[in-house]
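Dig into what follows:
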Amino acid sequence: MKEFTDSEGRTWIATAEEEESTDYKGRFYMVLKPSEGGEALPLRDVRWNSEKTARRTIDTMSLVELRRRLRLARGRH
């Protein structure tokens, strides 16, 4: 889980959630949530096989990358 601010100064949390599936591969997907509450924006095409890998990847994402992912999620939602 990683907090970041969007271009307007609002705080978001990047995290991963697990999808109920019998398939092991790609069970975890990226989710962006506003820290003050509100609707979460899933990015189901950004996937990982384990929670550990998801956390490590999210923790190493730059602010630029997180903002880019947020723009994509907003555009799709």
About this structure: The mean pLDDT is 94. The longest strand covers residues 11-18. The two ends are 21 Å apart (CA to CA).
